[in-house]
Amino acid sequence: MIDGKAPNIRHFAALAATVRHGTVTRAARAVNLTQPALTQAIARLEADLGCALFERGAGGMTPTAPAQLLAPRVEAAIAQIGSPRVTGTQVRAFLALARGGSYAGAAQATGLAPASLHRAVADLSLALGARLVERRGRQVILTPAGQRRARGFGLAMAEVRAGLAEVAAWQGKAAGRIVVGAMPLSRARWLPEAILRFSARFPEVDIVVVEGSHAELAGPLRDGEIDLMLGALRDANGLDDLVQEPVFVDRPQVIVRAGHPLVAVGQPTGAVLAAHDWILPPRETPLRRYWEAMLVEAGAVPPLIRIECGSVLTVRQLLLGSDALTLLSPDQIAVELAAGVLVVLPTPVPVTRTIGITTRTGWRPTAPQACFVEILREVGALANTS
Questions:
Q1: CATH of the domain at 87
Q2: 331 and 286 co-located in one domain
Q3: Could you tell me which residues come within 8 angstroms of residue 375 by beta carbon, excluding any fewer than 6 positions away?
Q4: Which tens digit of pLDDT belongs to each residue from 198-222?
């Protein structure tokens, strides 16, 4: 992970032990290395990072600022890995296999030969004393033990990346990246505005936006592949490992094409709305539940939905070519509303949903990540007042 290489877990363990124990003698004993081997491990890590990690003196090893930044992240990573016998090459190979679903996919992602990947995963299973994968045709399926290990390794690598980013920022170099999981509404105005503001302050930090639904993004968030998720908040039941922070309230509206027969009606009743075709996201989404509650409260029976779609782009085209209705935030179709090709109908009862930030329980953001979250709050506060 330094210059694209797999992390040397033993080197990082040597760093953490030396920070914790203060002397080479005690640190070497703690990680089962000889003193020369531990000293060499720290020297190699210093060379890779391009900075001193300790001040050597008669009284022991005093950690420098980079070591103090890196050590807590390394301790957390080692705890997630769970075994001193695991190597960085094995972690990299196994994560590539878990994400690629096959040795061929993992080889393409890493540039390693399939035989090397086979050997690394087999050695990892032996080191952990557990079967991690099962073959099913050309696909590779993780066992329950493999799923747990994949998540732990993913979180460990997220900690290492964060630590290296903090050291790079201390050195005045490019300070890593932020991976954002974005559900549909967040991509309309909130996230783009936050990215523009953040990039003006931190032009050296990369932003990666991963689009998807809550179901598609929650797993990568838990696995450490993305740093935070933006969008409509869910019921907290079953989300004990995630933290949800409300940021602003969105008010979805009934949307139709310009010239739709209901435009002349004014305030449509629930019964009138229920008599029309609707295009809505799947039943398990909050917006779909809000739509059902709106019609029930308006005294109507929600009709059967024949077209389910969560893509705003597709929904827009379907609305333009039909008399169907949908429920959307005006922010998601601001251009179409301004152009007059789509219009808002008043809802029979108000509909609101809470939009916010979801992170992993115990997530410790880097300074740029914390700043990005604060900017998201600032931009969201403007949405609450508009």
A1: 1.10.10.10
A2: yes
A3: 194, 197, 198
A4: 999 999 899 999 999 998 999 999 9
